[in-house]
Structures are given as structure tokens and as C-alpha cells.
Write a structure and sequence with these properties.
With 262 residues, this protein is of the alpha/beta class. It has helices spanning 11-22, 35-44, 65-88, 138-144, 168-179, 208-211, 219-231, 247-252, and strands at 2-3, 30-32, 50-53, 59-62, 93-97, 104-108, 111-115, 121-125, 130-135, 149-153, 155-158, 163-165, 183-188, 194-195, 198-199, 202-204, 236-241, 258-261. Helix 5 (168-179) packs parallel to helix 7 (219-231). The longest helix is centred in the N-terminal third of the chain and has 24 residues, at 65-88.
Length: 262
Amino acid sequence: MKVGGESLKFFEQYIARDIKELVKQDKVILVHGGGGMVTEIARKLGKEQRFVVSPEGIKSRYTDEEDIKIFTMVMGLINKDLVRTLIKNEINAVGLSGVDSSCIVAERKKKIIIVDERGRRVAIEGGYTGKITSINTQVLDLLVNNNITPVIAPIALGNEGEILNVDADTLTQKLASYFKPNYTIFLTDVEGVLLNGQLVKSIKLDEVNKILPKIGTGMNRKVLSARDAVKSGAKVAIISLSGKENPILSAIRGESGTVITQ
């Protein structure tokens, strides 16, 4: 499952309690984001953050050499806070990033295409953002097979040994392609996928492309990652609200969220 953004505020109150129930019978891998905190702390340090939009309408953080240091620092802080909370709830957890044991390797994007404020496509330097190329699951297998819950920060090791920012939703999907889980869950700050203010309870794979132009920036990335998770082996993917009682268990029971299925 992936938790990030506003969902992190509800981790101790709701999410950790659900994970405590889940680990009694299932293996859980947790991926986290935390871009909001990165932006907040970067501004306090005097480093304004830049966001860019791809021709496909996907919004992402632009990470330069100074940004990646702030990003790594803040993600490390979030990671240990989540592990602390899980251990407090009697869950055996270990925090790590993709740099640890080279478990997530990415290729640094030398150039990226963005749409500028005039709507034109332009190529800019890629900065320290990476495209995941491989996942070394040896460490993750070792952890989950010994009933230890991995908590993974979206930081990868570059092919040239550099630290790279990778998208947490995409990382969740890549992990799903290896572990082929029963559920891949994306916890967010809304009920699920909304069209005209109404919750879409179920989306089939062949319906995704029709829906994408109708949903907002941010949610489109989650829907694409959920689609790809199902395509690559997850039985279902669920996008669901984090800020309520039993957010994960209710999603698994089919009581909340948007389910993406074959």
C-alpha cells in the first residue's frame, strides 16, 4: 500500500491500527510519500519548489541538486516517524529507501519534456528525478518472509551512484508487479475517483483511458499506477480515503474507494 500527502496525518490515528490487524494474517509492504512536508521544509530553508507538467498532464516535482538533499532529508524523517508509529502499535517494521542494498535502481532523466505556461512543449534538464529500471527484491523478500513490514521511502539509487527522487505511486506499482499481491491500495485525501462530484466505485482496465481526461491532476497519476499494478499482476487496486475509521479494511471489504479490476 501507499500512503502520502494528507494521508500521513491519519497514520497513527487510523492507518497503523488497520496494519496491525492485517499483519496478523497477511504480509504488508508500505510505500510512503510526503511531498507536502518536503515543500514546507524547503520553503523554510529558503528553497522554493518547482513543479512541472508533462504533455500527458502529469504534475511532478522538479528536483535539482539542492532539492534532492532536502528531499532525502525529509523523506528520512517521515520514514522513521512511520516506523516508530508501527513499532508503537506492536508491528515489527523496518524503514529503508531504494538506496539500501540497491533495492531500487533508477535511470536519471537527462532531459524531460514539459508544457510551459504558454502551453508549449519544451525540453529541460532532467535534474535528479529517476525512472525506475529494476527492483532488487532480495532484501524485501527477506523482510516479508520473516514477518517484518518494510516501510519504503521513494528514493532510488541512480545508475551512476547518485540519489534520485522517484514517484511513490509508480514505485508502489513496480513492487506490485513483482509481489503480485491480492490488493494494491493507494490511500489518499478523497473518497476515490470522482466524476462530476460522484464516487466511481469500479473501473475496468479498458475504461481507464476514457476517464483520465475527466479527472484532476494528481489523481490521474494514481489511476495510471493502479491500472498498471493490475496489468502487472495485482488482483485488484483500490484508491481510497485515509481520513476515517478502518480506511484499509473497509477498502478491502469493498465498502469504500474506487476499485480498478481486470
